[in-house]
Specification:
The protein has about 425 residues and is an alpha/beta fold. About 30% of the residues lie in helices and about 25% in strands. The mean pLDDT is about 95.
């Protein structure tokens, strides 16, 4: 297709660009990006254009990348499939996603990695970058064949869903990964402290629910940062939720260690008060924390300690959520609300538009060493278009995801994804 996107403002931090532009897409590539005064000499005429999009008042960004999703395929397709997950991602503004390995069986073999990539490729929409396990079966007892998994297309290694409790094994994993310059993504959780079902504090006491202290996360963050310093491996901390973790990551960066971090929208929009009605859609791991932690997360995003925003999209069927709180599965879906919730950081003055795009596109690409998207001539036509002022109410019934486990159903938001383009194809 030949596509023209006109009247919008391009925000591309990789070029320090924040200006009105007209974009011409020809096939899978961006043909040209013209300033308003240059459109009298377009690369192709109106008669040769298949689709025109008027982006007046909207922001045109490099395609977004979600570093942390769970698509449940293979093995738990009743929750989500690669097809429904990719559709949800496209509607959420994501041209690329990284699928965590806790499928059934887990992604510890090249054949599973290839299956995930090829199934997404056949759909022709959002691209999937599989994360493979650190240990076979995520059992924390040995190491996977990282070299073979990288050759098959794995983008990083993690036992996400489970921590690597054996410090010696984590050291060996980092040493092995360093030999390939591969990324280790750490699920930081001290299991002996994490036997509760929500954040430990006044609210958990009032509700009579077993709590999980901040230390359950921060202890493991500190351990893995120490191992990063020992080995020199690239370390990425997943789903940061506590003030103590933010401070530990801040100190690591001040020392120049190769440590990066992500958080999810629920950790900077909600607190443990969301659980007061025993709403299992607000049950997740790590749990929603205190207001102090929420503010620390927002500050960490503002000053660059937290590099990326990821969803930790975790679909579950009703039968796993409509049960007593203690028994409910952890996790919420997030692909179709991430941009709108994260835009609140811009509206609140926590992030600029450029910083927002860094967290959603540029930084995740750099961390994963995937070629960063650029809105520039000759680049891949991967674009996300947002209307920052569009108000709407979240409706889980309209989601493309197979699951509906969200605490944001009915929320009023300002800022919405209007179009997603991947490889020159309009996928939403």
């Amino acid at each position: 297709m030949r596509i023209r996107i006109e009247n919008g403002t391009v925000v591309d931090p990789s070029q320090n660009l924040d200006a009105k532009r007209t974009i011409y897409i020809d096939g899978k590539k961006i043909k040209d990006v013209l300033e308003p005064e240059d459109i009298s000499n377009p690369p192709f005429s109106a008669d040769e254009t298949d689709y025109v999009y008027n982006a007046e008042g909207q922001i045109i960004c490099p395609g977004f990348l979600d570093m942390h999703v769970h698509f449940r395929d293979p093995g738990q397709e009743y929750k989500e499939t690669i097809e429904t997950g990719c559709k949800a991602a496209a509607h959420g503004g994501f041209t690329d996603v990284c699928c965590m390995p806790n499928t059934v069986p887990v992604n510890d073999q090249p054949e599973i990695t290839k299956y995930m990539i090829e199934k997404a490729r056949a759909l022709g929409g959002t691209r999937v970058h599989p994360v493979a396990t650190i240990s076979p079966g995520s059992n924390g007892k040995a190491l996977t064949e990282m070299g073979l998994l990288l050759q098959a297309g794995a983008c990083a290694f993690s036992d996400d869903g489970y921590p690597v409790t054996d410090a010696q094994l984590m050291r060996r994993a980092m040493e092995y990964a360093r030999s390939f310059d591969a990324l280790i993504i750490s699920h930081c959780e001290e299991m002996r402290l994490a036997s509760g079902v929500m954040n430990e504090g006044i609210i958990s006491t009032r509700m009579g629910l077993a709590g999980i202290p901040n230390a359950a996360e921060s202890i493991m963050v500190m351990r893995d940062i120490a191992l990063c310093e020992l080995t020199g491996a690239r370390l990425h901390i997943a789903h940061v939720s506590t003030a103590q973790s933010v401070e530990a990551i801040r100190r690591a960066k001040e020392k120049g260690l190769p440590v990066t971090a992500e958080t999810a929208p629920h950790y900077f929009t909600l607190t443990d008060s969301a659980v007061l009605e025993y709403d299992t859609n607000a049950k997740m791991n790590p749990p929603l924390r205190s207001e102090k932690d929420r503010e620390a997360i927002r500050k960490g995003l503002a000053d660059g300690v937290i590099d990326a925003i990821a969803t930790d999209h975790a679909p579950h069927a009703e039968l796993e959520k409509k049960v007593p709180f203690d028994l409910a599965a952890n996790g919420i879906i997030g692909l179709e609300t991430s941009v709108s919730l994260s835009m609140s950081l811009v509206h609140d003055g926590i992030l600029t538009f450029s910083q927002f795009v860094e967290k959603m596109s540029l930084n995740p690409s750099k961390i994963l060493k995937i070629t960063p998207k650029m809105v520039a001539s000759g680049q891949a036509a991967d674009i996300t278009i947002i209307d920052p002022s569009k108000a709407y109410s979240v409706s889980s019934k309209s989601f493309q995801s197979k699951s509906r486990n969200t605490p944001f159903d009915g929320w009023s938001c300002r800022g919405k994804v209007m179009r997603t383009i991947a490889d020159g194809k309009i996928i939403y």
